[in-house]
Specification:
The structure holds two protein chains of two kinds.
Chain A: E1 5-7, E2 10-14, E3 19-24, E4 30-38, E5 45-51, E6 56-59, E7 62-67, E8 72-77, E9 86-94, E10 101-103, E11 107-112
Parallel strand pairs in A: 2-11
Antiparallel strand pairs in A: 1-3, 3-8, 4-5, 4-9, 6-7, 7-8, 9-10, 9-11
Chain B: E1 5-7, E2 10-13, E3 19-24, E4 31-37, E5 44-50, E6 53-56, E7 65-68, E8 75-79, E9 88-95, E10 103-104, E11 108-112
Parallel strand pairs in B: 2-11
Antiparallel strand pairs in B: 1-3, 3-8, 4-5, 4-9, 5-6, 7-8, 9-10, 9-11
The chains are: A mainly beta, B mainly beta.
């Protein structure tokens, strides 16, 4: 089955700096990679996703890159703000293995003002 | 548009007691997911429904967990009997289809004493 590993587990940056969170996956059939943000005590919310037919996707200060050969994908947040502080989860899923929707273990991002 | 609704929000029970969680997905969403999230970890998928059909429940501990989605709308997840290790947040999510944006409910926080 799929194994999604996420690093780092905690990340502390100064406001205005960039933050990068990386995930690796094991199932070469995985083709959909969403990223979720979960603030303390709240529900996870999708912030960006990428499918295997593209290598990069951007949405304002957030971008995701995908390297299918190396089986890793990354979340990039530029010009970080204190409200970016939260736990971020990556996930991977495949069309060819039903129910194979796996989340990483999460990265706690702290943006210091 | 109303989001995913879950009830109860909190539940405290003694071990060996039964417990049930209810989820009402966003109207028109065919896909429904049940996740378990332990503290400090990512959500773990338990079961996914496409309409009323459980596509794959291979990660559902069937000796004590059961789920149903009658008429392809609301869903119920049951644990009987509950064990101490079942203490977690149980999240329901829905999406228009598989690999579409998942919208999460607020979760049910279960504490088994």
């Amino acid at each position: 089955g799929e194994n999604v590993e996420q690093h780092p587990s905690t990340l502390s940056v100064q406001e205005g700096d960039s933050a990068v969170i990386k995930c690796t996956y094991s199932d070469s059939a995985s083709n959909y990679f969403p990223w979720y943000k979960q603030e303390l005590g709240k529900r996870p919310q999708l912030i960006i996703d990428i499918r295997s037919n593209v290598g990069e996707k951007k949405d304002q200060r957030i971008a995701v890159t995908l390297n299918k050969t190396a089986k890793h994908f990354s979340l990039h947040i530029t010009e970080t703000q204190p409200e970016d502080s939260a736990v971020y989860f990556c996930a991977a899923s495949s069309l060819y293995n039903f129910n194979k929707f796996y989340f990483g273990s999460g990265t706690k991002l702290n943006v210091k003002p | 548009e109303a989001g995913v609704v879950q009830s109860p929000r909190y539940k405290i029970i003694e071990k060996k007691q039964p417990v049930a969680f209810w989820c009402n997905p966003i109207s028109g969403h065919n896909t429904l997911y049940w996740y378990r999230q332990n503290l400090g970890q990512g959500p773990e998928l338990l079961i996914r429904y496409e309409n009323e059909e459980a596509v794959d429940d291979s990660q559902l501990p069937k000796d004590r967990f059961s789920a149903e989605r009658l008429k392809g709308v609301d869903s119920t997840l049951k644990i009987q009997p509950a064990e101490l290790g079942d203490s977690a947040v149980y999240l329901c999510a829905s999406s228009l289809g598989y690999q579409e944006t998942q919208y999460f409910g607020p979760g049910t926080r279960l504490l088994v004493l």
